[in-house]
Design brief:
The protein is built from nine helices and 55 strands. It is an alpha+beta fold. A hairpin with a 6-residue loop joins strand 29 and strand 30.
């Protein structure tokens, strides 16, 4: 590396916001000026005449160049400078062997002592020590040559500036990483002086090569990200060109395939060859238009800028902290300490109890001792009263892990741990405060109670403080389980109480009486008598009629054969066939004979499909009404019948001749059309139950 190499013109990047030929023109002119060429610019046509130095004449093979920066009609002997041109590639080849690294020293333009002393204003501390010194800050400038290749070629020079820690420095003149107040590379190149070499040794200390490699890798990430962003726009420009080429290829080959006659290509070999050739050319064009990006490190520069550094020791009572203030003697920019919380540069600073430097906006005070602390490492919020407290003014909660104030933190009497009030609860019975995990839920009230106040109920096995003593056994039951005798009103536990099914009340053992009918122990024995025979009965053996609710003994109560409901003799309906007892809900009235019958003596007619009693359905499976068809019938006009409004009947009304026969419940209609097709309709009033089609009677056509 040559420490005296001139600054490279490639350090200045080509701005992507300006026209491409303007950025390239500036680069080319800076290139030739840097290496000693004489340039004469022509504003009329934006060209330039360059008289080359001896070194450049040897490289380019001619004493002078006529530079033209736009495609078009070139004058005789003109040298075109565009991306990918021969002259541009020669310029890149020349830079490959020259100016790979540059070491510059920026001059001192400002004084630092007075400004450093006034740079910070401690609010709660005093300056106990001050040490001024000058240092050299190194900035690393990496120039990347980025090439975009597809069906055309684009090239770009991109510059990344890093400090010694690898943090990117924003520039005011490019790369989109800085602002207008940032440094300018052109100023560095203009004002910087090459560091001299004396006796083969450089006066400046250079970083190790491993550190340079790490910085270069970090700069390469920024260059690749920059290239990725620009690839989006470049690919958007490539796609229309690719579409145009593929459309032209596809149209040409489709025309060629269409001109192949079947007689000339009976096996289709020529067409398959053309289709294969088309697919191959499409793949070639897609590959030719694929965007490829290459980022190559063209050169780098190390720029040293002088710094005035003040190491200040601040003392706040028993605490002290060291801060550093620096001033760039080239630009005059000040570097202040950073706030420990927000990270902003701070001049009016505060030192907290943990020796952190804070800005005034991030300063907090303990609500108890008023010490200055920060949000990040000093203050804790009480979960009960939300006060901000320091560590010494708060107590650690062993339950939730937070810190609470002393007023809202107590020692648990069970586990002896310090627990905040947010994790403790008062016993609803005795008022003792303890950890919520040690409390039980009262099975009666649902409130929390301590284990001293909790009593386990032997019946429901739940714990409660609301208990009563059983007069029979002496055990304590919760008030939800213990009952009072309905006769003597003594409290007894559930195992020692009997519930009379007649009235649903509980009675103790002393108030129970044996029923003379069934022998069961009941408490309200004398309340029930049979309505028929006046026999005394209890709630276990007494029966109640479902219809009239009268009480009956077991002898006079009748059970329905269908649903087993209890009935008295008055409301029990008997099956006319088998004599079984039926309730009104289970009573089936036969539509034919009108007699009651049970479900066991019910049969369905095979023609009308309606239920009848077993006596009305003959051996052939027909009810009496269907057996009389078509002997006993009457001819009807379906339009005058109640079921004429039904949509199913409206479609058949005028296409059939209708006869009808009735029983006590149903009307049965039989229709026949001109082709002998029959329709059977079963209805009840104006409700149609079902419609059947088929041939039911062979002799129906003979009826006149």
């Amino acid at each position: 590396m040559s420490a005296t190499s001139p600054p490279l013109p490639s350090i200045q990047p080509i701005a992507t916001t300006t026209p491409r030929h303007n950025g390239l023109r500036e680069f080319a002119l800076a290139f030739f000026r840097t290496f000693g060429a004489q340039i004469t610019e022509r504003t009329s046509d934006s060209t330039a005449w360059v008289d080359l130095s001896e070194e450049l004449s040897t490289h380019f093979g001619k004493p002078g160049l006529h530079l033209v920066f736009q495609n078009g009609d070139l004058p005789d002997g003109a040298d075109l400078v565009v991306y990918g041109s021969r002259l541009f590639d020669q310029m890149m080849d020349f830079l490959d062997f020259r100016g790979g690294a540059t070491l510059l020293q920026l001059p001192r333009r400002h004084q630092g002592a007075d400004q450093l002393l006034r740079a910070i204003q401690p609010r709660n501390a005093a300056v106990m020590g001050l040490k001024l010194e000058e240092q050299q800050r190194q900035l690393f400038v990496f120039n990347w040559h980025i090439t975009y290749r597809s069906d055309d070629k684009r090239e770009e020079l991109f510059t990344v500036v890093l400090d010694g820690e690898g943090k990117r420095i924003g520039l005011a003149d490019g790369n989109g990483a800085g602002d207008e107040a940032g440094p300018k590379l052109q100023d560095w190149l203009t004002d910087g002086d090459p560091i001299a070499v004396e006796n083969g040794k450089q006066s400046a200390h250079l970083p190790p090569m491993t550190h340079l490699n790490r910085l270069a890798e970090n700069a390469r990430k920024y260059a690749l990200y920059h290239a990725d962003v620009h690839c989006v726009a470049y690919e958007a420009e490539i796609l229309p060109r690719l579409h145009k080429v593929l459309s032209r290829l596809t149209s040409y080959y489709e025309q060629q395939i269409g001109e192949v006659y079947d007689s000339h290509d009976p096996q289709g070999d020529k067409r398959r060859v053309l289709e294969s050739d088309l697919q191959r050319k499409i793949a070639e064009e897609i590959e030719n238009h694929r965007l490829r990006v290459q980022a190559r490190l063209l050169s780098y520069a190390i720029v040293q800028t002088p710094l005035a550094v003040a190491n200040i020791t601040l003392s706040a009572g028993t605490q002290s902290v060291a801060v550093q203030v620096a001033r760039d003697l080239y630009t005059g920019a000040m570097t202040h300490p950073l706030c420990h919380v927000c990270g902003d540069a701070v001049s009016s600073l505060v030192v907290d109890g943990a020796n952190h430097v804070l800005c005034e906006n991030c300063t907090r005070r303990c609500a108890e001792c008023q010490d200055v602390l920060c949000d990040r490492c000093g203050l804790y919020e009480c979960p009960t009263c939300d006060q901000q407290l320091c560590e010494k003014c708060s107590r650690y909660c062993w339950s939730c892990g937070q810190r609470a104030c002393t007023a809202h933190s107590d020692r648990c009497p069970i586990c002896a741990d310090d627990v905040c009030h947010a994790c403790q609860e008062l016993c609803a019975e005795c008022g003792t405060r303890q950890c919520r995990t040690h409390l039980r839920i009262d099975g009666v009230t649902g409130l929390l109670i301590c284990r001293q106040c909790a009593v386990a109920c032997p019946h429901c096995h739940q714990e409660s403080s609301h208990v009563e003593t059983c007069s029979a056994s002496g055990q304590r039951f919760c008030t939800s389980c213990i009952v009072a005798c309905a006769r003597c009103h003594r409290l007894v536990g559930p195992p020692f109480a009997t519930v009379d099914p007649a009235d649903g009340l509980s009675y103790c053992s002393d108030c129970l009486t044996a029923c003379a009918s069934c022998g069961q122990m009941v408490g309200s024995y004398n309340q029930y008598h049979c309505q028929e025979c006046n026999t005394a009965c209890c709630g276990h053996c007494a029966l109640r009629c479902q219809e009239c609710a009268v009480l009956l003994c077991a002898e006079h109560g009748v059970r329905c054969q269908g649903c087993e409901a209890i009935l008295c003799q008055k409301h029990a309906i008997r099956c006319e066939i088998g004599g079984e007892a039926l309730c009104p809900a289970c009573d089936n009235v036969c539509p034919g004979c009108g007699y009651s019958h049970c479900g066991d003596h019910t049969a369905n007619c095979s023609l009308c499909l309606q239920p009848y009693c077993g006596a009305c359905v003959g051996e052939e499976g027909l009810c009496e009404t269907c057996r009389e068809f078509p002997v006993s019938y009457r001819e009807v006009v379906m339009a005058d019948e109640p079921i004429a409004a039904d949509s199913r009947i409206a479609n058949l009304m005028y296409k059939h001749r209708w006869i009808s026969h009735n029983n006590q419940h149903y009307s049965i209609y039989l229709g026949v059309n001109a082709w002998g097709n029959q329709v059977l309709v079963v209805a009840q009033g104006d409700v149609v139950h079902h419609v059947r089609r088929g041939v039911f009677f062979r002799d129906l056509l003979e009826i006149e």
